[in-house]
Amino acid sequence: MEADSSLRRALKADPARILKNIEVLLSSASAVLGQPEEEVLSNTDFDYENFDHDRLESALAELRVVNLLDLEGFSKIKVVPKRKDKSADILASLSGEIFAFEVKCVNGDNNLFATDFFTGADGKTSAAGKDAVVSLKNGYLKKIRQARVSRKKEGAGQIGVFIVINPVGFVHLTEVWELVELAGRVYESLGCPAREHVCLVSGAAAAFHPPFR
Q1: pTM for the predicted model, two decimal places
Q2: What is the 3-class SS of 22-89, one letter each residue?
Q3: Residue 109's pLDDT band (boundaries 50, 70, 90)?
Q4: How far apart, in whole angstroms, are the C-alpha atoms of residue 153 and residue 163?
């Protein structure tokens, strides 16, 4: 109860709005997953006795991704129970192909998505933008290993990592075009890996590079 978090502060500042956002998120994910609303959180392996300050936000981030994949036209979306082999968090199908995604929740106080990344007519990346690209690249590399496990075990044809900040949208930090540019630059910094996707989510805004279709 003494642990601090951006979600906790948002709840204190505007409880009605944040609780409504969480309610909508749970309801939407319930419909997509075909599970009772009261079960969707525990199906992310969320432990109601785990008081780690960011665990609830991480579980909500997975459900935010579930809803985004549904909006992108994916089907057979399911949250994968945690395993010893550390496979991906979410499996889904698009045009008959299996995708595997790992989800990383970034603390809401993080300013990775909250800066002007690109300056000047030449489109050069600012110093803050360069730092953001490096940080996001490192986060991607840590998480993509688990999605690669699912490539082998689940026969996933394409994989990716979702990096999510503010899954219940308690603050809007980044415009869509900025996320699109940033996702593209992170992907380039990774060497443009074939059949892999960099997916960035900031509140209501989301970007995927390369596109899923």
Answers
A1: 0.89
A2: HHHHHHHHHHHHCCCHHHCCHHHCCCCCCCCCCHHHHHHHHHHHHHHHHHCCCEEEEECCCCCCCCCC
A3: low
A4: 23
